[in-house]
């Protein structure tokens, strides 16, 4: 698969010992308690296939908007596709109203399209929070309760576990995670995942793992998963040790690095094997990724090439690839051209070390959170907000 080399263990006495027991989500047992974070535009069947080839875990698809799903829009049906060998089939729903949530979950259950459903309450993008959705929603705690309990009720018809993924809150003055965690638990979710940032932080600064520990301690009776700034297997081990979580959720750290799931599995099994791919493995993986995107986009090679472009910088982070070649790769038009461009690289170049490690993907600075008028005035919906919620669901991309 790719070059592997040793790296220091967390501690010597941990060698050979599993770090955690398997993660139990209702009837599902996830042997390696690692979750691929849902990432819109990234975690499609092609990328999940690459990750799954390296290690165990739960691989969540890109978020799908409940309303778009119920309306059977082709893009939504594409998003919830799974390969025949993908078990469990995990779908993330975004919704702002209980009725549409109920219809979407019922559709997934009755048509046997999912084994696990995650609800997105973490998205910070303005187009979503402006309508009261994503990370803005748990503030309206009764609306949150109603969405979660509707999803749990509909999913329970087929014993399908529902989980919730959320942020700390809107900002430091409007933290919601503990109350929302308890409400979700009481509504019957199988687990709660916390990204240790507020909406205001977006992707800036560092994820607050102490909040993850606080949530873990506040919810002793259900699994709590920690999310934010896991860039290596060592980070995952550290998060487990510092917070006591039952599993980790990994997003940006695996962009351009599906082999991270191999490292994570090894670390969770107490082994010190780590992938250290050279240029040749990276090129082969990038090509395979691009190839698998073609059937994902129903044979549309152009769409597949447009999609693969965003992965190029992640795959080659830290590798000596000249700026001219990088520019050509991010404007690639065909599979043949991609092969030709990658063929120009010296395939004997090895792993560049630290330059390929560390943060990758979205970062930036804190951002004003765009909210509906008077949203923060009360945790209850006012009449205008209730009307807006009814009409609010937008077809949107995640975050
Ligand atoms: C490109 C991108 C798309 C994302 N899309 C979603 C999404 O659809 N649903 C969701 O709950 N979170 C989404 N997120 C947030 C991630 O799931 C995760 O919570 C966040 O990146 C923090 O984890 P990390 O530090 O491991 O990246 C997205 C993040 C990125 C970078």
From TrEMBL:
Pfam families: Dus. One of its GO terms (molecular function) is oxidoreductase activity. SUPFAM superfamilies: FMN-linked oxidoreductases. Keywords: Flavoprotein, FMN, NADP, Oxidoreductase, tRNA processing. Its EC number is 1.3.1.-. The keyword Ubl conjugation does not apply. Residues 36-342 form the DUS-like FMN-binding domain. Its cofactor is FMN. Residues 1-21, 349-372 are annotated as: Disordered. It comes from the Bacteria. Coiled coil: none annotated. NCBIfam families: nifR3_yhdG. This is tRNA dihydrouridine synthase DusB. The lineage of its organism: Bacteria, Bacillati, Actinomycetota, Actinomycetes, Micrococcales.
């Amino acid at each position: 698969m790719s070059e592997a080399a040793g790296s220091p263990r967390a501690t010597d006495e941990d060698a050979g010992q599993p770090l955690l027991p398997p993660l139990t989500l209702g009837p599902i047992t996830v042997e390696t308690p690692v979750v691929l974070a849902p990432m819109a535009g990234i975690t499609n069947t092609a990328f999940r296939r690459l990750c799954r080839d390296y290690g165990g875990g739960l691989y969540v698809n890109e978020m799908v908007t409940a309303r778009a799903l119920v309306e059977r829009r082709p893009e939504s049906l594409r998003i919830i596709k799974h390969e025949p060998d993908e078990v469990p089939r995990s779908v993330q729903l975004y919704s702002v109203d209980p009725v549409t949530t109920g219809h979407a979950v019922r559709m997934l259950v009755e048509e046997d399209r999912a084994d696990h459903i995650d609800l997105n309450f973490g998205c910070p993008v303005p187009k979503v929070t402006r309508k009261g959705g994503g990370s803005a929603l748990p503030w309206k705690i009764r609306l949150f309760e109603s969405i979660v309990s509707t999803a749990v009720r509909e999913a329970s018809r087929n014993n399908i576990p529902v989980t919730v993924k959320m942020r700390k809150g809107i900002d430091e003055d409007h933290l919601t995670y503990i109350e929302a965690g308890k409400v979700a638990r009481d509504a019957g979710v199988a687990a709660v995942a916390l990204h240790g940032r507020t909406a205001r932080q977006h992707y800036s600064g560092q994820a607050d793992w102490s909040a993850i520990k606080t949530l873990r301690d506040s919810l002793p009776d259900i699994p709590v998963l920690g999310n934010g700034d896991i860039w290596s297997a060592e980070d995952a081990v550290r998060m487990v040790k510092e917070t006591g979580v039952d599993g980790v959720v990994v997003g940006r750290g695996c962009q351009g690095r599906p082999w991270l799931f191999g490292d994570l599995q090894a670390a969770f099994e107490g082994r010190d094997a780590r992938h250290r791919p050279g240029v040749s493995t990276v090129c082969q993986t990038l090509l395979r990724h691009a190839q698998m995107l073609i059937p994902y986009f129903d044979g549309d090679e152009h769409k597949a090439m447009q999609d693969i472009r965003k992965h190029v910088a992640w795959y080659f982070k830290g590798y000596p690839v000249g700026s001219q070649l990088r520019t050509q790769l991010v404007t690639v038009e065909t599979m043949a051209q991609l092969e030709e461009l990658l063929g120009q690289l010296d395939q004997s170049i090895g792993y560049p070390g630290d330059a390929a490690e560390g943060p990758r993907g979205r970062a930036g600075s804190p951002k004003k959170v765009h909210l509906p008028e008077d949203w923060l005035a009360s945790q209850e919906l006012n009449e205008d907000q209730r009307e807006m919620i009814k009409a609010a669901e937008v077809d949107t991309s995640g975050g």
